Amino acid sequence: MFARYLPEGFGDGALLGPVSAALKRLAAEQAARGDTATPLRLGVALSAGADSAMLAVHAAVAAQDIPGLELHCLHIHHGLQSLADDWAWHAHDLACGLGLACHTLRVTVPGDTGKGLEAAARDARYRGLEHLAEFIGLRHILLAHHRDDQAETVLMRLLRGSGPTGLSAMAEVSHRGKVVYVRPWLELERVRILAAAQDFANRTGWVPVDDPTNVQDHYTRGAVRRRLVPVLDERWPAWRSILLRHSRQARELQVLLDEVAAEDLLRLQPGSDHKDFSLAAWRALTPQRQVLVLRHWLNMHGLRAPSEARMRELCRQLRQLHALGHDRSMRLKHDRHWIVCERGRVSLLVQNDSDENR
Q: Which of the 8 DSSP states describes residue 213?
């Protein structure tokens, strides 16, 4: 396929280096597994904005040095903006011009999740990416999150009271569902990406889309970018570095706590799929480790952590049950699942639509 959007010699070395290293690492991991019969397929989440567009472009450049690598651009159509159809077309135009396959999936963003539109759209986006990954037959997806995104995420979590470990924010490599997400640009400032996007537009005529919600006040991240970031930049120009230092320290703490929680979970006599465990063994833990292991257990199954109030209620109910759970059953809804306790076993069940009427 003719790559009309891949100018000879294009590519910012600072942007290309981390992407190339990530692709080569994934290729080496596949080779180490002895899986040479199938090509290495990788996805690039492409919204058609500047960040994801430059990631797709630099991934296309880096892929030229890795024989047998298949790159697939993945576009999620939320249907929340009047220009969403145009953005999907624009993403396909770029992918086609790079010589890459592009896949679009339209998702429905529910309005009754109780988490807000931003969070609902994010969850729908990740579910859509997972569906596309399964359809195409790939496991790894590149995301264009950068240093500025990371600092904003830490700031928002701090304001929400996420706690010490919640400040760890995004990891370079993370698992969600069946997909492994890779973020090669977390250490790079967005100004570099925008400069590359401008250079690319000058050379090719392809201009990224601009999502107005990124700076709209009624969206939390938009309000942070429009109201807080300018003030922080003026009064505390090093605020990003400071928050990212806290984030790294929080991530180190999270690794240690995860090790402790994983060891505790093994002591709870978990089932073969780790979806249930012994109530009596859980109650033998200290209150702090009870909370820690519950968070670890839910995260293991791809569920978000409960709020502090929700976690207190879950622990209260578990502590008030008879040690063997014979006095009554417990049933607590969380993230489209039920946490139940029957016959002394705490279990996680997927919520069915019919359950809403119970």
A: G
Please indicate, yes or no, whether residues 113 and 226 belong to a single structural domain of this protein: yes
pTM of the entire predicted model? 0.80
Strands (E) located in the chain: 40-45, 69-77, 101-106, 140-142, 173-176, 179-182, 276-278, 330-334, 337-342, 345-350
Instruction: Say what the alpha-carbon torsion angle 305, 309, 315, 320 is, to the nearest 10 degrees.
Output: -150
- The tokens for 212 are 């107005």
Other C-beta atoms closer than 10 Å to the C-beta of 216 total 13
With left for phi above 0 and alpha for psi between -120 and 50, is residue 88 left, alpha or beta?
Answer: alpha
Residue span of the structural domain in which 279 resides? 267-357
Place of tokens 């002591």: 267
The answer to whether residue 247 is domain-embedded is no
pLDDT in tens, 254-296: 889 999 999 999 999 999 999 999 999 999 999 999 999 999 9
- Quote the CA–CA distance of 290 and 236 in Å, as a whole number: 39
**Domain final position from 181, 209, 232:** 232
